[in-house]
Fold this sequence. Notes:
By secondary structure, this protein is of the alpha/beta class. It contains 6 helices and 7 strands.
Amino acid sequence: MKPNQRPFIIGITGGSASGKTLFLNQLLKSFSKDEICLISQDNYYRDRKDQEVDAHGYINFDEPKSLDLHQYALDIQTIRSGMPFQKQEYTFNNPDIVPQILTFEPKPIIVVEGLFVFYYKEIADLLDLKVFIDAKRKLRLDRRIKRDANERGYGEREEVMYRWNNHVEPAFQKYVKPYRKSSDIVIPNNVHFEKGLEILVSYLRSKIA
Length: 209
């Protein structure tokens, strides 16, 4: 970064399994590693021992209190001021993955993503641009079923559906969807997002030129 240059902070949200991860990967590939840094909400989940369980014994990972959002905001403020920070990777309870210590350094573009980055005011107030990734409910459910089975260790379809109906979709309606209308850019991702990505990349390049 140039001396005294403040990062341009972009927030990205959308429903669970709306395609945020794929979109983010393509966004990151559109810039060099010296131009962009991603800070994911996923790395701010509280320890399992500190999580509350519902009436059926399941941890609800789709409630804001399941994450340390205050620390998330503090870390964004740190990198916004030009300082790096470190955070342990969250591995979604996958025993086959050894958590790494991740280092985040100031870059011209900082991407902040997660379900609650618009809902949580401490974070929302730090954003220069808000992007909402939109997808139909049926598509999000299909993607969620595949992802939870393959990546997050929820092997039983019954558990996946329970979480969807009791945790995931209620959280989307309460904490995510209401902020769609106030987003700066809404990018549909029912089939593809290439045009929306192209527009966003062009805009971000103009901000750091």
